[in-house]
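Trying the structure run again after the queue cleared.
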Amino acid sequence: MNVMLLAAGEGTRLRPYTSVLPKPAIPFLTIPLAAHVLSFLGDLEINKLVVNTFHLPQGIHDLFHTLPTKAQSVIFSDEVGFILGNGGGLGKAATHFRGGGSFLLMNADEIILPKEEDVLQKALARHNSQKNIATLIVKDHPGVGTKFGGVWVDANNKVLGFGKTPVPGAVRAWHFVGVQILDEKILDFIPPNMESNILYDAVTVAISQGHSVEAVPFEGTWFETGNPQDFMEASKTCLEYLTGEDSYQKKALQLALQRYSTEKTSATRTASSLKLVAESAEVKSSSIKGVFCAGPGAVIEEGCELTDVVVGRNVRVPAGTKASNVLFI
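Done. Tokens:
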């Protein structure tokens, strides 16, 4: 199967960190966000892995040259001048998908922890059996219709439309987690040579012309990481999973670390902290509270007072540093 990962975004809500690294390269639990996406793809056999770029493109190139993607080939679709959006970005890369049948499109910076490991396989089987032009992976979320736009469906989970406002005929709305299986016919619905949104500018038009689009719900946990507060809250919750009792979330996170961490990590919980520290990280005598992640080669000098802090690969935190709610990358 061919896969496209959307990695062109500027990550504006996560600035200033995304001024240094593109969001898919930001460390989450000591490995890049993109590594968690690749872990979600699991054992999916990937022929072409197409990654689009715009913001800090060399950082995306370096990231995917480093990560073990298991794809037969990794192809970059570089957007220059202006960003094309998820629809326009796919349109620019369309030649890589024509003639290849259905393919998967998803964001390169998602944290999705499925309860069942075969979520993608089940969605693909449903996509093929129903001859959908698009199949969207969705879940329950209390923010649908308020914080997030929804995928509005009928009683059979056929998609009728998108947005925060209910669509006529819909019986409920699901939260779209950014993963979709697309028939290559969708490429004909993308406006050429312009910025566009795959759902509103292509899938919606396909629905209006009678094509089948379906939502496939899954059980699992999805995290918002778009801004510093949500990023740190997601880190805290995931560290609670890693240091807690056995759960599907713990299993999924451990699997991601096993697959994509370049060295062993140690997760610990105390009364005042939740820590994930890479084997080569050096944490000297300092006060550590709340969430704390230290990637490979990180050094925290003596006398630091850190609360809710992430330290990236090979980053040194100077002696005496006092910081809270910060990513040192």
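The chain has a mean pLDDT of 95. Worth checking whether this holds up in the mutant runs.
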